[in-house]
Amino acid sequence: MGGLAWETLRSDEFAAAVASPDEWFVLLPIGAIEQHGDHLPVDVDIHASTEVCRAVAERDDHVIVAPALPFGFSAAQTYRPGTITLRSNTLIEVLRDVCASILDCGFTRLLVVNGHNGNKWMAGQLVTELPRKPGVFLGMLTYFDLALEAFTEHRTSRLGGEGHAGELETAVELFLRPERVVDERAVRYVTPSSAYGFVDLAVRGPLAGGGRGMANEYPEGVMGDPTDATAELGESVLEAAVTGIQEIMAEARGEADPSVHPRATGGVNGHLG
Q1: CA 140 to CA 120: how far, in whole Å?
Q2: Distances in whole angstroms, Cα of residue 260 to Cα of each of 150, 242, 257, 263
Q3: 156 φ, ψ (degrees, to nearest 5)
Q4: Distance CA 67, CA 82 (A)
Q5: CB distance 141 to 114 below 8 Å
């Protein structure tokens, strides 16, 4: 067995896997159900993170994709229909229980793959503080953080063109399911409230908060310019994310030396936010 969906396995198959736990990686997709303007479905975040995990599993027959956790911290998006949000402490506690359950099964490699920027701080806190046995790998990343270099290289929008439902997210959906993307798309570039805060998905400063609020500044639900997004860009973004996750898994399995990777030796420009 390999490259499998957690929910399709029998208990005897789990027992066989955890007999050699270090060979296996469990990927847990998390995201959000929230408005993404009038041109994208509300499940963009969880859909993208799930598809990234599935793509990794297709290339690695020792990956199990856990059931996706669709709901996230989306309090800023409730001003438009379709948003379902958890409270921040609820998200942390649900993640705590899910991750602990996966590790309690006997797995020693667990990576939370996030698709929603609003989850990052809570998920990062959880994987840092959750007790685990020596030698257990428990990590979290946001898929598009692995793809910022590819996005920057291929984007057509100027800075401020991707904050929410902009060029990157629209491109990803155009690649994955173009039939759900509406051609007529609102445009509202990100106007930063501080040069030290959020300017664009590729430029996120040290200042958290301080904004004027989504409802007042972005009434259409769009932060950015989705008009020129392409499926080709979406494919590049997803490929970069899949490749990054593969490299992280190789490091955790002891198959790659992180100290000689270009990111650790100054060979890769840019940052992962």
Answers
A1: 8
A2: 21, 20, 6, 8
A3: -110, -20
A4: 22
A5: yes
- Transcribe 105-169 into DSSP letters: TT--EEEEEE--GGGHHHHHHHHHHS---TT-EEEEEEGGGGGHHHHHHH--S-TTSEEESSHHH
Q: Which two tokens stand for residue 126?
A: 């959880």
Structure tokens at 153: 């290289």
The CA distance from 214 to 219, in Å, is 7
For 154-211, write each residue's pLDDT tens digit: 999 999 999 999 999 999 999 999 999 999 999 999 999 899 999 999 999 999 888 7
C-alpha 68/C-alpha 57 separation (Å) is: 14
Reference 172, options 121, 233, 114, 112; nearest CA is: 233
Q: For domain 4-265, say whether CATH 3.40.50.10310 is its number.
A: yes
Cα–Cα dist 13/2, whole Å: 10
Global pTM exceeds 0.85 = yes
